[in-house]
C-alpha cells in the first residue's frame, strides 16, 4: 500500500494593520504590518485555521512573511517607534548567526543583504 500526502501548514494574511511600515528583507520593497492565520492544507484545500502569534511583516511584492521584530524600519518614516533589527540572525530561518557568516549553517540562505 502506498500513501502519498500532499499538504502542510501555511501562513495567510488575515488583516493589514499598517501599510508601508518597513522594508522587506528579501526584495527591499515596502511591506505591511499584518495579522496572519496558520492554515492546515491537504491537497491545497484549507482544513483547519488558527490565529498566528502576534503581528508579522508581509511583502505584497514577493509574498515574504516574517514575524514582528525581525525586520528593518522603513526609511519613509524616520520617527518610527520600531527599533532597527539586529543583523545577527538569518533572514530566512531566524537562527542567530555570527556577523561574519555569508551563509546560514542551518538553512543555507545567503546573508549578504
From TrEMBL:
InterPro entries named among the record's database cross-references: Double_zinc_ribbon (IPR053281), Zinc_ribbon_15 (IPR031493)
The protein's name in its UniProt record: Zinc-ribbon 15 domain-containing protein
Zinc-ribbon domain sequence ranges: 23-108
Protein species of origin: Ceratopteris richardii
PANTHER family: DOUBLE ZINC RIBBON PROTEIN MJ0416, OS05G0435400 PROTEIN
Pfam families xref list: Zn_ribbon_15
Amino acid at each position: 500500500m502506498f500513501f502519498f500526502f500532499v499538504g502542510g501548514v501555511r501562513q495567510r494574511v488575515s488583516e493589514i494593520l499598517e501599510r508601508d511600515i518597513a522594508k522587506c528583507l528579501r526584495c527591499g520593497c515596502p511591506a505591511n504590518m499584518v495579522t496572519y492565520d496558520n492554515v492546515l492544507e491537504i491537497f491545497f484545500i484549507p482544513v483547519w485555521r488558527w490565529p498566528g502569534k502576534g503581528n508579522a511583516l508581509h511583502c505584497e511584492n514577493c509574498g515574504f512573511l516574517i514575524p514582528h521584530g525581525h525586520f528593518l524600519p522603513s526609511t519613509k518614516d524616520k520617527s518610527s517607534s520600531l527599533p532597527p533589527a539586529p543583523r545577527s540572525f538569518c533572514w530566512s530561518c531566524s537562527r542567530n548567526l555570527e556577523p561574519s557568516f555569508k551563509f546560514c549553517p542551518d538553512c543555507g540562505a545567503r546573508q549578504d543583504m
